[in-house]
Specification:
Blueprint lengths: L21 H21 L4 H18 L8 H13 L21
Helix pairs in contact: 1-2
Length: 106
């Protein structure tokens, strides 16, 4: 009815569990593996050391968690990084650009 050619949720079918990209699953898997490895190595009942062992899975989970208006925090961080570290000299040529010709160019 609204004239859309592609349904709004067409991209979700290409994602893992309709939310995560493959790189998100890899990042979270690496964080979970490192946390499990730290749990095996530390083998302590200290609360502080257990929290330290949980940090990799918490950080990677934070990076891949879906947030509104972006796919996830990792995409938002990448966009912010590209904006501030990218080229600052923007070349504009749009619909409002008029080429001016002198009398000799006509």
């Amino acid at each position: 009815m609204n004239g859309y050619l592609v349904p709004a949720n067409a991209k979700k079918g290409t994602l893992i569990l309709n939310v995560f990209r493959p790189i998100d699953a890899i990042i979270f898997g690496v964080g979970a593996f490192i946390s499990l490895l730290l749990f095996v190595i530390i083998n302590s009942s200290s609360t502080f050391l257990i929290l330290i062992a949980c940090l990799p899975v918490a950080v990677t989970g934070f990076l891949v968690i879906p947030i509104p208006n972006y796919h996830n925090v990792l995409c938002a961080i990448q966009s912010i990084y590209r904006f501030f570290m990218g080229r600052r000299n923007y070349k504009w040529r749009g619909w409002c650009f008029y080429e001016k010709f002198g009398k000799e160019d006509k």
